[in-house]
Design brief:
about 270 residues; alpha+beta
């Protein structure tokens, strides 16, 4: 049973690491042919040019260079964050919020990303959110302090500590040590279960493809997936939506206040 538990947590850590790598992989570029090598700059050169353009206040050019890096299949938290900042400076609210969210998925505990995202979201049209139970919100904030991989390593350490304390309980001769081992094991097991739950929650959110951001300046949400359907309400650029269903070129979405309706897929972009 102990071996099975250890195997499962190791497997969870590997899955989280792979999910992190798939989303945060500033990987080596694909091998280019000789003409391409002459015509195109390397990702490092593009990165330096983008940063230089940003420092010089040329945010449009900076965003173009960052986008070229993304177009090569490369990504990282820093790339998403810098691109979001460039788009925000350019006044492209929807794209800035989109990339702030993508950066936050890779670094959920980063205060700079959270602050900049809150500033960007403050410029969107107000949507009255349904209040959450304070404990649920608090637990989510704690979970987002670390990444999926970090929580997995934490839970593995808690499991090892629990096994060590259990051995103390079994082998110690003194009653005080046996009590310490017993109660310490209970605490360590509780920490292991909680951190494992955090790790699974972070992995699930990292791989979630149901959240999206409205890209259009404004768009009407329909009562059904049809352009001639009744307009229910209007959403504006930068609004975060939850995709509940897909049908051809339409998405059924839900917003923070619980309202539902249908949007054309081209009006939103998945985080």
């Amino acid at each position: 049973m102990k071996r099975l538990t250890l195997f499962l947590i190791l497997l969870s850590g590997i899955l989280c690491a792979r999910a992190q790598e798939s989303a945060d992989s500033l990987a080596q570029p694909a091998v280019l042919t000789a003409p391409d090598q002459l015509a195109e700059a390397s990702p490092d050169q593009l990165w330096d040019r983008a940063n230089t353009a940003y420092i010089n206040g040329d945010y449009h050019v900076a965003a173009e260079f960052y986008d070229q890096i993304l177009a090569r299949g490369l990504s990282s938290m820093k790339l998403y964050y810098n691109l979001a900042n460039a788009y925000f400076k350019e006044g492209q609210l929807g794209r800035s919020i989109l990339f702030y969210h993508r950066a936050l998925r890779l670094a959920p505990g980063n205060d700079d990303i959270r602050y900049n995202l809150s500033v960007a979201e403050a410029r969107t049209k107000d949507i009255e959110q349904i209040p959450e139970f304070f404990f649920t919100e608090w637990m989510r904030d704690v979970r987002r302090l670390m990444s999926c991989t970090a929580w997995s390593l934490f839970s593995l350490g808690a499991l090892v500590f629990a096994l060590a304390l259990f051995l103390v309980y079994l082998l110690a001769q003194r009653l005080s040590l046996r009590k310490t081992g017993f109660y310490g094991t209970l605490v360590a097991v509780a920490v292991f279960m909680l951190t494992s739950w955090f790790a699974m929650g972070e992995r699930r959110e990292m791989l979630d493809r149901t959240q999206a951001v409205v890209m259009a300046a404004s768009t009407a949400v329909k009562s059904s997936p049809d352009k001639s359907a009744t307009d229910l309400f209007v959403l504006h650029e930068g609004t975060l939506v939850e995709i509940a269903n897909r049908l051809d070129n339409w998405c059924e979405i839900t917003i923070a206040d619980g309202k539902k309706g249908w949007l054309e897929s081209r009006m939103i972009e998945t985080i």
